[in-house]
Design goal:
It is a single chain. Helix 1 packs parallel to helix 16, helix 3 packs antiparallel against helix 4 and helix 4 packs across helix 8. The protein is an alpha/beta fold.
Length: 560
């Protein structure tokens, strides 16, 4: 088999791996990113469903982002990598980017700590003191957590690693107030008793400057990072599943693909699921017993199910996300799900995200006069609920299983019913509907237990208690949702910058915030007139193979 030599190899093309590769490439290193799927991006990718000569496009994991304004995290990283001018973000409604629908009231979440607190007090006037205390702690933990140069952090030190439930209890909040304050848990899939206060505080702080959506859809994020990688002499190679990270004399030396091909590099970065990295790509025999046991025994977050819908009418309304809650349970709901059971009643909650409102000029979403949206909820833990014994990443079959099909149909109907509470009736106008489950996610992303969020964000499994970027094996690094950087697009991309910084022994994030551009924007070729981020993320080789087919599809679409 052929053999290649690179300066660095990154296994997996999620946002953490791509950001690491782009940062390494910016310093002159020749970087190869290997992806088992036919499109790069991990949870930032989109997929399309063809209907005749037209198609609908759906996001897998990008629904909204914080810190996309001037000086924000995302703008800073993209500017630093030379593609800031190519990333445009559309802001959701600042007066209510999340709308919470409870049985007895509706609550709109604004982009402001002060206004958020005031609205909570207006909703629960008899709980002013508790709300003041709770928000004071959450805001202080969020803001003090950003102080990384030795400043005093009294509230952070007291509260960051304590369970969120303790803050709710000490604030003496009602079940209704706790449920409103806990709505953010759907973005990390953990109960108050399971979640470190810093996770909750950090997430709120992430959105208090505004909530945004990338113009052109989530696929724009990996496309821009891949443009940087290619401009720096690197490559993203899809349809290239890695069988093993090769280790010689205690040092990572490259990878072996499932095809048998061997590729060599003195630096290897795994952006694959951390548990699978240890157990399958490295082998537990090559790490300390404590490392192997932590990877296996640490608790994963719950997975998600998502219904993708297109209707042939325009659903007007504010540019907001909807959360539909059937009751005010928090810890109890997660306890049911952890037992592998769907909670009694309608649903744990339903999250409704309308791509057509967030990105109205994106012609890829659906034809004019249509609306594209998604409905999500949490899935019970494990495979039993779905009627299977083994996940698809380990060779299990599920798509034709009767129990699996029945569960999908039941959940689809329940989620459609929940969405109609906030969107109005639309069932008669559905032109496309399908559901993706935790098994679907595991199949494409190869994440343990099909989770989108990696390990649970408990006090024992967050921050410095998670795996660090540098491993005990020389030359081997890890990045992604299971590592110290944490989950989500923000956690993964920040982790990518810090992982590259550790490899290079260089403070890249500080340089970026100081305005330094690591890559000259002029060195990155301009977008062609027919630039398609999804096709670009196939990688250079697969793009070339598909060029004629894609051109024909677009010509037929333009004529229809």
């Amino acid at each position: 088999m052929s053999s290649e030599q690179w300066d660095a190899i990154v296994v997996g093309s999620g946002p953490g791996g791509l950001t690491t590769a782009a940062c390494l490439g910016s310093t002159g290193k020749k970087v190869l990113v290997l992806e088992q799927h036919d499109v790069g991006g991990g949870n930032t990718q989109v997929f399309r469903r063809h209907h005749g000569d037209d198609w609908y496009e759906f996001d897998v994991g990008v629904h909204y982002l914080g810190e996309c304004g001037p000086g924000g995290l995302f703008t800073t990283i993209f500017n630093g990598l030379g593609v800031g001018e190519r990333m445009q973000f559309r802001e959701l409604d600042r007066e209510g980017f999340d709308t919470l629908d409870f049985p007895d009231f509706t609550f709109r979440v604004p982009a402001s700590w002060e206004e958020y607190e005031q609205r909570l007090i207006d909703q629960f006037p008899n709980e002013r003191a508790g709300i003041n205390r709770c928000l004071r702690v959450l805001r202080a933990v969020s803001e003090e957590g950003r102080l990384i140069f030795g400043e005093d952090r009294p509230t952070y030190d007291e509260w960051a690693m304590r369970p969120l439930s303790e803050l709710f209890e000490e604030s003496e909040l009602s079940a209704q107030a706790c449920a409103v304050l806990d709505h953010w848990s759907g973005l990390y899939a953990g109960a108050p008793s399971q979640t470190a206060t810093v996770m909750h505080a950090r997430l709120i702080g992430h959105y208090m400057g505004g909530a945004y959506y990338p113009e052109g859809g989530g696929q724009m994020i990996p496309a821009r990072l891949m443009q940087v990688i290619e401009a720096c002499g690197g490559e993203v190679r899809t349809l290239s599943p890695v069988d093993r990270i090769t280790i010689e004399d205690g040092r990572a030396t490259g990878v072996r693909l499932e095809s048998g091909e061997e590729l060599h590099a003195p630096i290897v970065v795994s952006n694959a699921d951390y548990r699978r990295t240890i157990e399958h790509l490295i082998g537990a025999e090559n790490v300390a017993p404590g490392t192997a046991s932590w990877a296996q025994e640490a608790q994963m977050t719950l997975g998600l199910v998502c219904v993708y819908v297109v209707v042939d009418k325009v659903l007007d309304g504010p540019n907001t996300n909807y959360f539909v809650f059937p009751d005010y349970r928090t810890d109890e709901t997660y306890a049911d799900l952890d037992r592998g059971e769907m909670p009694p009643g309608e649903m744990p909650f339903a999250y409704v995200a309308l791509a057509s409102r967030k990105d109205p000029d994106n012609a890829e979403l659906c034809p004019p006069g249509h609306t594209n949206f998604q409905i999500m909820t949490l899935s019970p833990r494990g495979y039993d609920y779905w009627g299977v014994e083994t996940g698809p990443a380990d060779g299990g079959s599920y798509r034709r299983d009767d129990t699996y099909r029945q569960r999908k149909e039941e959940l689809t109907q329940r989620l459609l019913t929940a969405a109609e509470k906030v969107l109005g009736p639309f069932r008669d106008n559905i032109v496309h509907v399908e559901m993706a489950t935790t098994l679907s996610h595991e199949r494409y992303i190869r994440s343990s237990e099909g989770t989108s969020y990696g390990y649970m964000h408990s006090p024992e499994q967050i921050g410095e208690n998670r795996p660090q970027y540098r491993t005990e094996i020389d030359g081997l690094w890890v990045v992604g949702a299971g590592t110290v950087g944490g989950h989500g697009i923000a956690g993964a991309m920040t982790g990518g910058v810090f992982c590259a910084s550790d490899i290079l022994d260089r403070p890249l994030i500080a340089e970026m915030y100081m305005g330094e551009q690591l890559v000259d924007p002029a060195s990155i070729p301009p977008d062609p007139d027919d630039f398609d981020p999804l096709e670009f993320c196939r990688g250079e080789k697969l793009r070339a193979k598909r060029a004629d087919r894609v051109r024909s599809l677009r010509e037929r679409r333009g004529q229809s």
